[in-house]
Specification:
124 residues, mainly beta
């Protein structure tokens, strides 16, 4: 059974940095697309970044472009989200997800496996 476990969230001041991790188990790190999404209180879950290991392409939401970076460690079956220059509007629960396709996608309906989320709070 596929399991994704996020960690690394916390409280940080505006302008600070955090690195989120997503450890995958129950599968060998595949070439399927993976992504990070977030959900702020009272808001719908939104796309943050997605990457396709098979094509090497990555797509960032405009709101995080230039500040967030996705990466992975195959040996640890883990992906990361480095978040710099954090803003109060980045406050949300962050989820990693594994798609059921190889190509990159921003559509959360294409992601069939989700972690439990890790909370990020950015104070002003």
């Amino acid at each position: 059974q596929v399991q994704l476990v996020e960690s690394g969230g916390g409280l940080v001041q505006a302008g600070g940095s955090l690195r989120l991790s997503c450890a995958a188990s129950g599968l060998t790190f595949s070439r399927r697309a993976m992504g990070w999404f977030r959900q702020a209180p009272g808001e719908e879950r939104e796309f943050v970044v997605a990457t396709s290991w098979s094509t090497g392409s990555t797509s960032y939401a405009d709101s995080v472009k230039g500040r967030f970076t996705i990466s992975r460690d195959n040996a640890k079956n883990t992906i990361y989200l480095q978040m710099n220059s954090l803003k109060p509007e980045d406050t949300a629960v962050y989820y990693c997800a594994l798609a059921n396709r190889f190509g990159i996608t921003r559509d959360l309906n294409e992601y069939h496996y989700w972690g439990q989320g890790t909370r990020v709070t950015v104070s002003s």
